[in-house]
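## Example pair
The file below holds two records. Each record gives the amino-acid sequence first, followed by its structure token line.
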Amino acid sequence: MNNFRLGVFPMDSLEIKGGVPLHGEVQISGAKNAVLPILAATLLTREPCVIRNAPNLADVKTMCMILESLGATTSIEGGTVTVQAAKVRDFADYDLVRKMRGSLCVLGPLLARLKKATVSMPGGCVIGTRPVDLHRKAMEALGAKVEIDKGYIVAKTRKLVGGEMFLGGRAGPTVLGTANAMMAASLAEGITVIEQAACEPEVVDLANFLSSMGAQIHGIGSPTLTITGVKELGGAEHEVIPDRIEAATYAIAGVATKGEVTLKGARADHMKAVLEKLRESGVKVEQSKGNLTFKRGRGLHSVHVTTLPHPGFPTDVQAQMMAFMTQTPGISIITERIFESRFTHVQEMERLGAEISIEGPSAIVHGVQKLSGAEVMASDLRASAALVIAGMVAKGTTRVSRIYHLDRGYENLDAKFKKLGAKVRRVAQ
């Protein structure tokens, strides 16, 4: 963990020999986007919390380091993280927070617990503007004074009081903003109503964890959340939901390589938009005993996809879907409505032989069916996964560099792909 503490990421690359259909079963890990705010929520209580099914990811380790820097004690054993924040400091330092966007979700718990919080502006993948204005708006609606000072968010209040807030933004509801608002409101005096709350499964998972701690939250899973503040929250045990983005990535990799992949533990109810688009493209999806199996039908068809807030098609699957679209005949169109800079993988895919043109917020993908191996560079987490999929489809050898992005969001990705028959190996730099 020392490398992450010093801000040094291993610069490994992934070497892929393409043209091998993927076959077999893969166990889906716990959701990255759920576990990070859940870990932050442990700051709301002095009592120990046990989080099960936590994925073994760089981001999880970073979040534990952030919690420790704030005064908590953490331990990781297998897929279980235990946290106790008996004493908490109110300062989240730049050196750790800058590494991932999810670290911003310590703002709400610190403000609720200590009535003050100083949190560095966060980092994360470079996929477009992600302002903190809705986070600020949420804290101010609860009675806090919030300022941006020298790169830090500084929030203070004599006491948090329930209020009404509208968290709809330019691209829809804010996921992390909803998480921060829920956590802060859980210890505020009175009733808080959040309109245009995010409805993602990861937000629901956080709400369920808060409820197990003693929070009173109504309307979970809906755009309107009503939270009655309580004086204190207690420790709790919780099992993190499976990662729907990881599941979609392996499903797409399987059908893109003309294989058949079974996802163990994946939840179809969290993946409805992805399943619908895959079926529309000619993919067969079978459900049995909590598992999902994906394979090609008799023929593939071009599809049009627009990314939207849940329950729409997730932006985190856009790049992977684009890799698959290079294998579908005709012209497919992806329109990105969440982030304005999330086509950075297009240029690298073109190095593999993809034919993609950008027109405003849309990418027009011409199915070429044949890609050829090349040296490519990952720009963000999901772009990395898309380039790996494209490399598995391509003829010859592809080397994807800067795969530390993958280690942030996919547990044992190269090992899981090897289990499915992929010819991949990690090359240390």
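Second record, same layout:
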Amino acid sequence: MKTKPAFWVPSLYFAEGLPYMAVNVLSVIFYKVIGLSNEETAFYTSSFYIPWLIKPLWSPLTEMFKTSKFWVTFCQFLCGILFAGIAYFIPADGFVKYTLVLFWLAAFASATHDIAADGLYIKALDKDTQAFWVGIRNTFYRLSMIFCQGGLVVLAGVLTEKYSDAKFAWQIVFGCFAGLMALLALYHKFTLPVTEEKHEVIRAKDFIKPFVSFFQKDGILLIIGFLLLYRLSEAQLTKIAPMFLLDSRENGGLGLSQSELGIINGTVGLIALILGGILGGIFIAKRGLNKSLIIMILALNLPDLFYAYMAWAQPQNFFAVSSMVFIEQFGYGFGFTAYTVYMMQISAGENSSSHYAVCTAFMAAGMMLPGMISGVLQTAFGYKMFFVWVVLCAIPSVVLALMIKKHDGRKN
């Protein structure tokens, strides 16, 4: 008997978001709280993007061996083991190198899970059913973000205050996370549908050809530059912002507790992100990408001025800080919509899936590389001048957007 989508689509996409958020968001807060420098934290955690950058290279392997259901449940169970290992090694001497290795492995497992989960969704459901469930699956993915950025960070803060031991608090958090991933793997073993798999061996030339055709697109250098630089400001802000909010006022930060950070990022900021994304989609649907692009880039980047203001003024009012983070995240959600639509437009046509995979690889590179140097820059500049630098980093994306408008206008 075929399993109804209601029994597996919501839980599948909730599970998909969990390891991604743990690897790329919780790791930043964890390493900052246990005492790593901003420079080390930004560099190490930015390197976790690499599996998502190169996942198109091994995605065909999931088609050649086993089923999508196997890869989903295997990766979920593997994530459970890896995060249990992180929890185990936190009290150990040299725990940083051990946990970094485990986070790296979890990143590869999470990226593989993304491939398998999306593949299962496409294979198990017809197009009409896919369209019906897409909003629900995205909602549960975002719920996983709230759970991690909000619930788990708040829990870590409460436990830290109770036991006065940040390492012990995060050991409990990652231990609970590991248990949740294991339970989801067990649940999905019985509820995920089994799909027909062809297991065709992909020839090297058939695999390479779609990717080569991407680099033969008209204006490819402009496309690549735009994909890499569109989020140049946000890539740096994303890494440093949580550390700035947590850092002591003496060090130039705002001195928030972990619980306060969880409330701001996991609820206030995430609600703003979702609202911005929804309104951005409506805005671009009515005006079109070409007419919307500059406005949406400004919406993405101008709110970064609030972080510059907070670094200089160091406001103490929690509501004021929350409001400024709300506006910045709303602008991010609104402006990022244009980036997504742009990737879909340049990927349209033959080999659209492969071309979109290349776009997402450049997107990951655009987040990883600036993120890796953001800690070095913040340490050199201090928070005040670093956030001024972040605002100025919006200039290349605006220039490239103007060039794209001109190029597309000439093409049309």
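Notes on the second record: The mean pLDDT is 87. The first helix runs from residue 9 to 33.
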